[in-house]
Amino acid sequence: MIKNKNPYIVSMAIFMLSIGIYSCRKEMPNIPEMKPEAQWAKSYFNDVLLPKAGNQVSYRVANKLSSIKERERKPNQKTPLWTRASLGKTALYEFVEVPLSYNRKIVTLFGPKDMKIDPEIIKASFNRLIIFKDKKGKIDQRIVSFIPDKDYLQRHNGDISHNKIDHLDSDFNGFLVYKTWDDVTVSRLRIINGKAISLKKSSKSSPSLKLNKSASTDRTVSERPGYEGEPGCADWYEFDYEIFCYFLGDDPIPYYCSDPVITFQTWLYTVCPDDPEEVDCEDPVNFTNPECEHEGCNDCDTGTEQEDDGCTTSKTAAATKANAMTAGNTSFANAVSSVLNSSTNNIEAAFRVDDNAGTITASTPIEEAELEASTSTNSNTIAIGHDHPEGGFPQPSPFDFYQAGLLAIQSNGKLATDYTFSPSASYAIVINNTTLMNQFLINYPMSSTLAKDQNGDYTGDFKKGKGTLGNQFQDWGQEAYDVDPRRNGTPTERVAAEIAANEYATTKLMSLAMGGATLLKRDSNGNWKALHYTKQTINGVTSYTVTPCN
User: For residue 162, which of 126, 196, 197 has the smallest C-alpha distance?
Assistant: First the structure.
């Protein structure tokens, strides 16, 4: 990393150099112009891509979609440099490859969790926009990130910018990462000697996913004795960094870069030294669909696939139960008003609901004591309720779900409802069947699934790690968030996308109880309605929705 102890000198040097460069450029008789053959790609970008997705960078979300606090982040714009566009053609496509300029450079790196950041790799990495068209005129696009290994970078004096998607150096070692224009990662390629030797998408259903043995040895140091009995294996992680970099003229190597700031981190897969070699279907020389699902097939009708937990009779019964408990109940309304007041003051408060010979009353909320409200229940208690402080997710937490299940089982199904209130939305967990809920707790034990703090108390969230329910939960939400168009909007819209993604993940979590639990949401009229999720894929486009049952 190039640094100067006096930032004023750096700023003035850049300013004076830019004046000199600008002055020289004014004397140049020929200013570079975009190649006319690239006009179709620029027209597609301006007419189709830009109006739909804009040019604002969308940040990936980690830590259970906790990037709500990132709403204050200043927008980062990406802009194609059309005057530097190049043309290419393969057996399947003609394409235009365009360098991308960012307000703040975005770099993706891979390696062990404790990997040291190499500033030279960050400086040399770059992104290009590829707009490609098949023989029938169908146009699509990808952002491709070129990320070198250290050994290859040193052999080329820190500059890899001469590489193109259809012409990599024969000794190129590193990675290519494919994303859509709205920054959804669709593919990662390991490149050795200019060839893609392994493409394995981060399959959420295969926690034992491994990378090819030809990965650089300096990135495969085992973090533990082995994985599934295989010595020498190591966990690999994916990191996103954001960096301020300054460039002089068209020089592809930054003059100066600030310290990188991490914006995303997740476990990706496991590297083992003895994995068999694979030939990947997406060699850059034969640039094809980066998802590699329909090789050589540009017209394939992938049909429709749908996953839906449906609106069952047990869900309808759960909504009826909650409405009967709360409709027109003054004491319940007063308790809700009280906890919502606590919520706006960033305090979590809780209350219980008792049924005394047919008279349903809510207790006075206790601040900062959700657990106390549950332990202060009696033989007449049929529900508990609490708030989530403003600024967090309004949905019930994983701990709320487990707690609701345990209370229902301990009370033989009498205390079977847990209400959650926030200024933005209100939810309820209803345990429909204690036998099914108990089986869920056997399959996903609380002690090994939920996270604890240093004092041994549950934090409310899942434990993280490959193959865990916590990772599944995060993946569900991430998938829904990645395709939500609001993620490219205003800070308020991005927060709305995060909340909707968490709602999808929470609804899907409840479905693991196989009908033993239902998530309800209160509508604008004060009625509780059961939720069901839908994951639908039509012609390769997947959507994730949560809708109320009528």
Answer: 126
